[in-house]
Amino acid sequence: MANDFFMYFIIFWVCVLLAFMSIGGFFMFRKFIKVLPKEDGKSKLDWQNHYVDTSRHLWTADSKAFLDQLVSPVPTAFRDIAKHSIAARIGQVALEGNANEVTREHCIEGYILATPKRDYRSLTSFLEKQKIDYSAFKHLLN
Hints:
Elements: H1 2-35, H2 44-54, H3 61-70, H4 76-96, H5 104-114, H6 120-129
Helix pairs in contact: 2-4, 3-5, 4-5
């Protein structure tokens, strides 16, 4: 009887450890894919860093506060990473538009472009709850 309990105890923990290692491996693999260089020799993370650094002087206090508001629904553990990738996309939008500063419109457009399609429903509900007008960018949600 005691041997059976110990065997089930060991099997349970083996399954738990395999599950945790699989979940961790999945997220590590996703991070590894982002670091691989593309055709131009830069990785996705390299481009994000480039756009954040290049557009740093365009950010105003209002646009930074608006970015903080936009990333507020992201869980705290992932908020810094999400903020960086969204800021990179907003910076890209502003730089490609030859803007003198990052505006709320740049923030909304970059926020929509940086959000995966699977999250569009929560994105639109968040924008509507915050009473943020995104009607000019609804065409990006298709």
